[in-house]
Every structure is written in C-alpha cells, then in structure tokens.
Amino acid sequence: MLGIIEQMKEKMQRSEVYKSIFRHNYQDTQRNRALQIVDNVFLHLHPVRISRHATNIGFTWGMGGITFLLFIVLTVTGVILMFYYRPAAEYAYDDMKYLMNDVAFGPLMRNMHRWAAHAMVITVMLHMFRVFLTGSYKAPRQFNWVVGVLLLTLTFLLSFTGYLLPWDQLSIWAVTVGTNMARATPLLGHEGPFGPELGMRIDNDVRFVLLGGTQVGPPTLLRFYVLHCIFLPLVAGIFMIVHFWRVRKDGGISGPGESKSP
Amino acid sequence: MEHLLKIISKPDNIPIVFLLVLVVFYTWYGFKQAIANDRAGTPLEASMSDKVQVWPYLVRVEFLAALLVMVILTFWSFLLDAPLEEPANPALTPNPSKAPWYFLGLQEILVYFDPWIAGVLIPTLIIVGLCVIPYIDINPKGNGYYTFKERRFAVTTFCFGFIVLWVALIILGTFFRGPGWNLFVPWEEWDTHRVVALTNVDFSEFFFGVPTRLVDDSLNPLGMIIGSVTILLWYGLGVAYYFWKKGTEVIQKLGLVRYSIVAFLFLTMMSMTVKIVLRIGLNIKYILVTPWFNV
Ligand code: HEM
C-alpha cells in the first residue's frame, strides 16, 4: 500500500504539470533553501542570505513587517466591507447596521478592519521609534526614512478618512474637529492669516474643497470614501513598494558593520 | 474610578491603552539594549553579523510573528465590537468633541496656540522636521545598533518629542480632557456644566505689569514690543549658543545652515513645552498679541 503511494508521488513529481509549477524539490539543501526564496515571487522580496542580527526580533521588533501585514489584512477586510457599504448619506449608516446585525461574519470583518487600522497606526509609530533608536536613518538610508515619513502621514490619513465612513455621531464630529483646522490655513483658509485678504470665504477656501461643502455633509462622505478606498491605498502601496525596494538597495537591514567605514 | 473605567472601556480607547503599554515597554527595552551596548563597548549586533539563509531563519520568524498578530487581532475582533453610535446629526454637537485619538496631541496644542499655528504650521513642521532628521544628524556613530552614549542629544530630543509631546498629549487628551475641553482627573465624573473662570493673563502683564490692551481696548504697543523681544530672545538662544560653542568640532562639522535648522526646530519644539507650562502653571495665555496673529 505504502509503496503504491510512494510510486504515485514520484510519478506526480516527475510529471510535466508538477514540474511546471514547482521548480525544485524539497530536500533540505543550501541550494533549495536559496531557490525557495528566489523562485517565489512573494518571498523574493527578501535577499537569499542576511546577517543574523536582522533575524533577531529584539533588533527590529518586527514592527515594519507587522505594519505591512496589517495593511494586507486591511485590504482584504476592506474589500469585503465594500460589498455591503454605499457611500451615500441616506444609506451609509443603515448599511453599517445591516452589516453588524444581519450579515454572516459581518461584525467580525468590520471589527477586524477597525482594530487592524488602530493597530497599524500604533505599529507604524513604534517602527519609526525603532528605526530612530538604532540610527538606521543614517547614510545610506536617509531617503528611505523620508519615504517612511510619507508612509506615516499616509497611514494617518487612511485612518482618518475611514473614520468618517460609518456616518454616526462619533465619525462626523471627530472629522469635523479634525477638518476645522483647515479653516485657519494661512492664505488658503477663510479664518487664516491673510486668507480673507486674498478673497477666501467659507464657501471657497481649502476646507470647502476638502469637504465639498461648508460643513461635513454627504459630499464629504463621498470624497472621503474615494480617498479612503482608492486614492490613499494606491499611493501608500506605491510608497511601500519603493520603501521595500530601498531597504534592499541600501544593503538590507542596517547593522553595526557599516558605520565603521563611512 | 468608575469614570476611568468608562473612558478606558470605550472601544476606540482600547488602542490607547495598548499604545501606552507598548510605548513604555519598548522605551524600556530600547534603552536596555542601548545601555548594554554602551557598557560592552562593542554592540551586541556586531557579534551577530555573520550571514544566515533567509529560508528558514528569517521566514520562520516572520511566520510566527504573523501568526501571533493574527491570533491577537482575531480575539480582539471577536471580543469587542467596533463602535456604532447614533446616526450622524449635524445639529447635535457632542461635548467634548474629540478628534480621533492619534490627532489628540494636535488638538491639545490648539489650547495654547492660534488654530493656524496648531492646526497647520505645527503639523507641517512635524512632517518636515521628521524628513530632515537624516540630513541634519551627521553624527556617523550609532548607525545600525542601539546606543545612547554616542548620540545623547539626538536620542534625548527624539524621545522627548515622541513620548512627551506626542504620546503623553494623546493620553492627556483622552483621559484628562472633558466637556468644554476642561481638565478633569480621570476618575472624576464629567460635569458638563462646569464653567472655569477665565483668569488668563498675557505674558507682558504677568511679568511686567504691562496690560495687552489699553483703556480704549486698542493693543498696547509696549506689550507688543515686550512680546516680540521675548520671542527674539528665545530664538536668540540658538544664536548665542552658536557663538559660545563655535569652536567645537560638532558645530564646525555641522556648518551654519544645518546648525540653524537644528536650532530652529529644537527651539520651536521646546516652545510647545514652555507654552504648556506657562498656561497650565501660571495661566499665561499669549506671549505676543498682534492684530493679525497671537503667539
Ligand atoms: C506603512 C508604513 C511602513 C511599512 C509597511 C514599513 C515597512 C518596513 C519594513 C518591513 C522594513 C524592514 C525592517 C523592519 O521590519 O524593521 C522597514 C525598514 C525601514 N523603515 Fe519602514 N515601514 C513603514 C513606515 C516607516 C516609517 C514611518 C519610517 C520612518 C520615519 C520608516 C523607515 C524605515 C527605515 C529607515 C528602514 C530601514 C531600517 C534598517 O535598515 O534597519 N518606515 N520598513
């Protein structure tokens, strides 16, 4: 019996179909370990070999990776939420109620989306804190730190625009408080220094552009929805690609070896 | 006590509790490694610079970390529902109205500065300031390992900004700010009708007895002069320090342009602290009042 299974396995592994999918076998050899990384589109984000301290969770805290994982979780759960949600003031709140009460696994999806979003804000700040403490922004990684700061900003904006979407008291007032500041933008806000002198009114300044109205209303909901679901994730995704690429190009995770030969 | 529990157990405030615990833990942990490295002379990371294969040595760590995060997230999502309050009602302003927790530091700054400074200028300076860090910190030491001894100023300044001016203000905004944005102790019931008498005075009046406004309610030029001079003196500290330390190697290497940026950002950041202390401690509202803006 066992012999037959062995035979079948061998036969399968020699078949054209199998070989076309898996390019190497699974014996634990140095070569296969390398191929495992290089032959896999997702894993080949990594180099084949890295210095041992970079695998030490005590050094990186794993926070960059966790931030990325949470971003993926948010993308998956976010797509599912989009099936049930319409970004119009007359539907948004009811869609949320429906999702929370009548959709199978609806509450789980929404909760995961919400808590992963909060968690991502926390982990991205901790990631920055780690990168600072290990001085990893120093040459040659200066620019990747700048990319990181943009990612930090985008993470805040993603979280902030998403906050409005449930269209309940909590969301519109938090967003009202947050966007009220834009009134006071110098030159471009109707309450900012030199704004009125430049002809800014409540119905034509930056805040008006952002909200699509003089207060947080249905047009704001649509704008934030589009920003939240399309524009910001796209931009953040692009910057993440740049960020990871640069981690590789700058010589992998920083370590003490390099600083001696600046 | 009951009230504190009520704030903590608001679903959207749970992350702040996580944040607090994690920041305390990682600060301790980061400094522990820094001090151990400083004591040892050569950093621990240097003894681990041999190469290993990513499969399995890194991939397995990533896998376990992902597993752990997913387990925590799943439990969290089963146990606690995301909040959904009453439907949006533009006519009904809640008191207090708070921004999402990660912006509470900025909302807190609104107490001390004009909206255009707190809401626009300071956020811009934070982002720009963070971006220029790699270009103004030209100390080649401490690249790729934990250390405190080799970068005292950099580490102290960043920790002060992050822990005190960002995280602590978030905590303050969540637990200590109630209706009317008044200060409450966390276990104190929020009294919506509490009115705090405005006893604020401006800087020139407090220290020099020069009122901000004259009898006819126009601005007092003397007050404006005192205010402007005070601000000039504050930034003058940076100039004075430059001339005092000009000969040192650090300043020489930094050069005038980089030094000016460092001094400006540092003094601006510290002025937040000064204004918070003046306001909460001495009820001093503005340093300088002008017809166009107040500082
Ligand atoms: C969406 C946000 C972000 C993601 C997904 C992300 C992801 C990552 C990952 C996976 C790494 C590899 C090492 C590690 O895990 O620590 C990394 C490294 C790095 N990150 Fe980020 N990051 C983000 C935001 C930031 C921010 C806010 C900063 C700083 C302001 C930053 C600066 C850096 C730098 C300088 C490195 C190289 C570190 C080294 O070589 O030791 N990143 N990032």
Helix content of chain A: 55-70%
CA radius of gyration of chain A: 25 Å
Order of helices and strands of chain A: HHHEHHHHHHHHH
Largest sheet of chain B: none
| Helix-strand makeup class of chain A | mainly alpha
How many strands, what sense, and barrel or not for the largest sheet of chain A? none
User: With helices defined by DSSP (H or I, 4 residues minimum), what is the helix count of chain A?
Assistant: 12
Q: How large a portion of the residues of chain B is in β-strands, by DSSP E?
A: under 5%
Total tally of structural domains of chain A: 1
Note down, in words, how this protein is organized.
The complex is a heterodimer of chains A (262) and B (295). Chain A is 66% helix and 1% strand. Chain A has 12 helices and 1 strand. The longest helix of chain A has 32 residues, at 218-249. The model of chain A has no long low-confidence stretch (mean pLDDT 92). Chain B has 295 residues and is an all-alpha fold. Chain B has 2 domains: 1-46 and 99-189, no CATH class; 197-295, no CATH class. Chain B is 60% helix and 1% strand. Chain B starts with a helix and ends in a 13-residue tail after the last helix. The interface between A and B is large, with 105 and 94 residues. Strand 1 of chain A pairs antiparallel with strand 1 (51-53) of chain B. Protoporphyrin IX containing FE is lined by residues 60, 63-65, 67-68, 71, 124, 127-128, 131, 134, 136-137, 141, 144-145, 148-149, 151-152, 155, 240, 243, 247, 253-254 of chain A.
